[in-house]
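<goal> How does this chain fold?
<sample>
Here is the protein in question

***
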Amino acid sequence: MAFSIRLERRLNAPMAMRIAVPVAAVAGGLLAGGVVMALGGHDPIDAYGSIWEGSLGSSDGFQSTLIKACPLVLTGLAVATALRVGLWNIGGEGQLIVGATAATGVGLYAASLPGPLLLPAMILSGCAAGAVWAAIAAVPRALIGLNEIIVTLFMNYIAILLMDHLIFGPWGDPKAFGFAYSRPLPDAAVLPLLPGTYVHVGIVIALLVAVTAWWLMERTPWGFSVRVSGGNPRTAEYLGLRISRRMIIVLALSGAIAGLAGAIELTGVTNRLQDGISVNYGYSGVLIAFLARGRLLGVVLAAFLFATLVVGSYALQTTGVAQPIATIIQALIIVFLLAGDAALAFRLRITRTRPLLEPAQAGAG
């Protein structure tokens, strides 16, 4: 008796499996990370204990994790929002930076605005700058099909150079020594803190943006038209939907969310424009959107997981484990998620096959 093994596409994975596979992937990534640490001569239990204590197991650690999660939520949302119309926004890094740059410009040159108006003006300018920066890639993508991945990626470097020109030049603080950063912002240009904590209200804004984006994309007719345009362009054309217009609007909205992350990071954390204001938040947003499988509310959980690993990695060094181990763990989780995606999309089908009759047997029959 012979057997044949083949991959067969699943029509619809059970809900329990769709929940269990990501959980198992994260657990598998953590377990594999423990093996890596053990091979390096470190105790994985002590290491993960340090990560827990440094990120979630203490009040200071938890607050630091929330602060770190804020820009990660927003950049992850920026990528996931663009995916709704079938576009990859790889420019979250640049859009975050131009958002922070625009907000700095308002803070420096419109400092005479009344206190209650200055901060909203800075945040809105950050959103507008991010939207315009993303639209530079959205318009040629919609009109002539120019690949948005390449354009948004290259725009990141332009944004970084623009920021460097300003903080080394006209906006530079003459008192700066050893580091490049802008002149300080007015006292009114600082996000308030949540009562009893040192966590700025930006995390609340990020959660509200996540819920609003989910409602817009999942519970409104316009959001449905966006999903149709991204998932099945032929059907969208048949229904008379203007795909190019929706591409431009959604990618601009994606950029606005990333620009908001820059404005919040500026007014809530750094309080001045400086080199390295984005610690690869834009690129991490791509991984977070993938980890969340493009689900807008899932981005919040994925960003919180990333923030936990990043903040915990600082405490990890106290055990003698190098900080880049946290990056390795993140990469292992992504690898296990890729394997999980394959398990959700395909299954092994083992069937028995009858052996072919030998020619002599066939003749005898």
The longest strand covers residues 2-9. Residues 69-303 form one domain. Strands lie at 2-9, 346-353. The chain has a mean pLDDT of 88.
